[in-house]
Amino acid sequence: MTAPARARRPLDRHAVERRVLGVLRVLVIAGAVAAAAGPLLYGVVLSVRPFADVVAEPLALPAPGEVDAGAYVEALRDESAGGFGLARFMRNSLAVALGTTALAVACSVLGAYAAVRLRFFGRDSVNGFFLAVYLFPGIVLAVPLFVVFSRIGLTSSLTGLVLIYLAQTIPVSLYMLRNYFHAVPVGVEEAAEVDGCNRMQVIWRVVLPMAMPGIAATALYVFMIAWNEFLFALLFLVDDRRRWTVSLGIAQLTDFNVPAPVLMAGSIAITVPVVAGFLLAQRLLISGLTAGAEKG
Amino acid sequence: MVRTRRRREELHGRLLVSPTLLVVGLVVLAPFAASVVLAFQDVRLIDIRFMSPADLGITFDNFAEVLSSAGFWEAARTTVVYASLTTVGSVLAGLVLALALRRPFPGRGAVRGLMLVPYVLPVVAATTIWTTLLNPQYGAVNEVGRRFLGWEAPINFLTTRGIDIAGLPVPVALSVVIAFEVWKSFPLAFLFITARLQAAPRDIEEAAIVDGASPTQCFRHVLLPQLTGVLALLGLLRFIWSFQNFNDVYLLTGGAGGTEVVAVRVYEELITRADIGAASALGLLMTLALSVLLLAYVRMTRKEGAR
């Protein structure tokens, strides 16, 4: 009874705005989903089609029976077996990323604890200093690092990369961990101290277990950055195919006239670990990264 | 007792941050200092092996050479255009999406998760997929263009400097790298704005609506003022990161088609020409430009805080 009466009412500014915005909202969301996930989906589809089909029919989807995972096998297999060696690139990246993660988390747990709980001379300037590191142009540091590394022979070594990634990830992981450590009640720590724990024991037995979700999120974030990094891998490892990391490996393959499905398979293969990890720990990661935003 | 406790805290604090300081000093500060020194030396990569501190001098040749070299000012202009448009694009896209996804609906969590895919994707995987999408022979974009939009010939997006559309010159490759960067970086803006929106008190808005404010008025006068802080910070961070971006541009175009930004030039000086002096000088100029920007931002926020 009231509905038709309402519909006939002349549209005022509010109703118009609300209706227009409602439609826009749906369009924006649909467009954003397509834009964000579309390219990845395109890569997946292309990776399971034979190259000849892709060239003949660029827009077609493979029929369920035609899905062909051969490109993945070819991408992953070692060069000696006629493949492109992606499995080895992944092992290299795994070693670099795990090493970076372990060291970065260890350093930033100590540093973040100090920044949150201890008053010491220069604490504030240390914090500002780390932030400055974060904003420093990577390409600018690349020049002297390249010079020094080539002089002391650290190029074509994965250790050198770990060192660089460490410096690049510590600022963010410190910042993330600080937010989590703030949430640990001081009283619990003091109680442990009264019970005779020294500083390291307090950190190890009290702070770490309570901040575990935050540490897991930080570790994942560092892992992601180290796994994805490209510039320094390019500078230091390009001549040494045995040591290529995943990013460098895929980037180099694009120059070799590798068929598109193999390239796509490679790209998807190196993406899966990070996207899976991210989606699993999404909530934790987001709260860690954005904790500062509320303060404006 | 109190004093020893204080002193112990002092000592522990310094001990605990020292590993971090050591790494950062070793890999960031020392190299930067070296970069400043190298910028004033006439030196190529081959000379480094035989150089001793006694050979250090001061010369401004690198700066003179860099500033007068062909294409420097064009690269500087390209960098500023690239960084500005990327910043505006990604912050705006992040804002629009954060607002669109503000009210709950079924499946919002999944949509939010999907929004973050471009941000998480390894940059090499992302550029490889985009390059394939834009491929002139079998890329989906050219196929759609030819089949449905009536393009006569495929467009080589990543190497074409510009084409005329309705008499207007459009920089093709530059637009592609900007679009890529907006796509890759809007999720972070979206995240931060969403987090800030969640902290915005609901009752002011409700009061405004009761008082008869329309949705756009409500946004303009209630929400936007609360968001200016996070928008300014995002703008600054995004500009700084885009300004120094090397990976994305290098991987997509290698600097072809009018996309040569200063960071790619630094790489060229370092690797292709092995001219360390010039590469350092160029890098130093970049750092200077960024620090001026950073100082201006700090000044601005200080003034606002004082008001």
TrEMBL record, chain A:
Principal location listed in the UniProt entry: membrane
Transmembrane segments: 20-42, 94-116, 128-152, 158-177, 258-281
Domain ABC transmembrane type-1: 90-281
Annotated compartments: Cell membrane
Keywords: Cell membrane, Membrane, Sugar transport, Transmembrane, Transmembrane helix, Transport
Gene Ontology BP annotations: transmembrane transport
PROSITE patterns: ABC_TM1
GO cellular component assignments: plasma membrane
UniProt keyword Cell membrane, yes or no: yes
Keyword set includes Transmembrane helix: yes
Membrane topology, record value: Multi-pass membrane protein
Protein family (similarity comment): Belongs to the binding-protein-dependent transport system permease family.
PANTHER family in the cross-refs: INNER MEMBRANE ABC TRANSPORTER PERMEASE PROTEIN YCJP, MALTOSE TRANSPORT SYSTEM PERMEASE-RELATED
Protein's recorded name: Multiple sugar transport system permease protein
Taxonomic source organism: Spinactinospora alkalitolerans
UniProtKB/TrEMBL annotation, chain B:
Keyword Aminoacyl-tRNA synthetase annotated: no
Subcellular location: Cell membrane
Main location, first listed in the record: membrane
Domain of life of the source: Bacteria
Domain spans labelled ABC transmembrane type-1: 76-297
GO (cellular component) term, any one: plasma membrane
Membrane topology reported for the UniProt record: Multi-pass membrane protein
Residue spans crossing the bilayer: 21-41, 80-101, 113-133, 172-193, 222-241, 276-298
Gene Ontology biological process terms, A to Z: transmembrane transport
Keyword hit for Cell membrane: yes
Assigned keywords, A-Z: Cell membrane, Membrane, Sugar transport, Transmembrane, Transmembrane helix, Transport
Matching Pfam families: BPD_transp_1
InterPro entries, per the entry: MetI-like (IPR000515), MetI-like_sf (IPR035906), UgpAE/MalFG_permease (IPR050809)
Family membership noted in the UniProt record: Belongs to the binding-protein-dependent transport system permease family.
Protein's recorded name: Multiple sugar transport system permease protein
Organism: Spinactinospora alkalitolerans
